[in-house]
Amino acid sequence: xxxxxxxxxxxxxxxxxxxxxxxxxxxxxxxxxxxxxxxxxxxxxxxxxxxxxxxxxxxxxxxxxxxxxxxxxxxxxxxxxxxxxxxxxxxxxxxxxxxxxxxxxxxxxxxxxxxxxxxxxxxxxxxxxxxxxxxxxxxxxxxxxxxxxxxxxxxxxxxxxxxxxxxxxxxxxxxxxxxxxxxxxxxxxxxxxxxxxxxxxxxxxxxxxxxxxxxxxxxxxxxxxxxxxxxxxxxxxxxxxxxxxxxxxxxxxxxxxxxxxxxxxxxxxxxxxxxxxxxxxxxxxxxxxxxxxxxxxxxxxxxxxxxxxxxxxxxxxxxxxxxxxxxxxxxxxxxxxxxxxxxxxxxxxxxxxxxxxxxxxxxxxxxxxxxxxxxxxxxxxxxxxxxxxxxxxxxxxxxxxxxxxxxxxxxxxxxxxxxxxxxxxxxxxxxxxxxxxxxxxxxxxxxxxxxxxxxxxxxxxxxxxxxxxxxxxxxxx
Length: 477
Ligand SMILES: C=CC1=C(C)c2cc3[nH]c(cc4nc(cc5[nH]c(cc1n2)c(C)c5CCC(=O)O)C(CCC(=O)O)=C4C)c(C)c3C=C
Ligand SMILES: [Fe+2]
Known about the structure:
GO terms for molecular function: ferrochelatase activity. The protein is an alpha/beta fold.
């Protein structure tokens, strides 16, 4: 079975220095009509009653443990989970002990809704120990460092978000995907609640989990919206889940199934091939177009030291898409490169910008960019690929440029996600997790205050030293 139980995943996501050999979806899954086995006699659509605003975004966490910075655009209210079905059956008061209530939790990265959200969003991102992986001894610097980097990076990021309309489209698109998935599952006779949990912005994963608890969900499928597994994406979200589930009597007994990666699924591969085929037809000489897969990068150390399977999975994914295209009679040349590197460390190579220049120099005239690590449009497709890379490609001698849209709510893709959920349900098991000693120490409020104190002093010293400042800025941005 492709999805694994929570405990299985957690043992693989001991993030530093351990081997992350994720098992993945087999390529041609058999359809498993679990809907016939699970009692769905009464549909349990939750009233999405917790219209928390951004001040209350994180539920049930004390301030000292909460690394998340928040902003509150005045007057904005919204559902605390990504999908508001609003069909109004109060689950708490109507629930029967024997009744199966299935939930699907979509995990995603999240993005700033407005330009004012950019810096706090970046803070949340850089405060994640799966994004900036400091040695344990220096972990106390995580948050001061996150503050520093987020403040320095915010102006550049804001420019990017401003150029795509003043915020990230991720929340809207993910909500649409959640709605579409719910409908697809209903069509397959599998009524579910679908929740959206973002890692770095609203609606946070923590909020979605609280809603799952309020809705008394009895079985949960976790579906990260990243086709390939990386420590920095799916791994990070799973770690957040692990921390919450461990502390809660109800959640720690809840049968959970996590679909860690699904890039091998036939429906996904075929949907990607469909998009590429369609986009190729726009070129005057489709057979001469270079198919240019551009994946979000990760630092090399993730793959080489921490065993992140991301690169292997990405390469296999590209292979499968190309095989599918060949089977359809499309034999274009292709290449894979990695984009969006941040900071002074080595990232996965080759880098997208360098390859574009090389291809131009080699005389490639037509190129079709295919974003491949993410299934929604976002800043790195709309700004980085459509604007920066397109300009660079044209300057480098490439004359004809195209870009495949992200899958979004493409029906064949959503149907395949629905099948993945149905196939994953039987393997749901209660997760068993125990906190390791160092994590327990991290939660101690006294130790937290001491670490923050010394970390902040160090960060200020860095900030106030002009030499350090210049070096820092030049290296990082
Ligand atoms: C598979 C996808 C992604 C991986 C792997 C990933 C790793 C990763 N990202 C950063 C730093 C940043 N990422 C940012 C935005 C961003 N990242 C992804 C996806 C992956 N990141 C998405 C979809 C988005 C866009 C969200 C949106 O608002 O549309 C940003 C912020 C934007 C910017 O300033 O460039 C940063 C910073 C690191 C360091 C990392 C691996 C360690
Ligand atoms: Fe990223």
